[in-house]
């Protein structure tokens, strides 16, 4: 709900302060997920889950920066991101997916 609705709506509206304010719960929720996963396997899983959460957050930040109408647009009064800086498939997707893989591996550790 936070990323899919609240952050997206502020992104489409060009509201950087709204996007940033809803990004804080996004970061807190992913860090809480990493800690919870880490705790579930007697803290061994935190070796995988904490870097996973950081990669997911980094991935989202990278994706928003590389969009045609992402962070650049909100910082520059609605001006579209120049085409030489727009990437449909940026490193953000790689970071995001690797983060989920690490969290999944942390969840899969035996208790």
Indicate the topology.
Layout: H1 2-13, H2 16-40, H3 46-66, H4 71-75, H5 91-108
Brief description of this entry?
This protein is mainly alpha-helical and 111 residues long.
Tell me about this structure.
With 111 residues, the chain is mainly α. It contains 5 helices and no strands.
Key features?
single chain; mainly alpha; 5 helices; 73% helix
User: How many strands in all?
Assistant: 0
Distance between the termini: 30 Å
Which blocks of ≥5 consecutive residues have pLDDT under 50?
none
| Count of separate DSSP helical elements | 5
**C-alpha Rg (nearest Å):** 16 Å
The secondary-structure element order is: HHHHH
- Helix fraction bin: over 70%
Described by strand count, sense and barrel closure, the largest sheet is: none
Structural class: mainly alpha
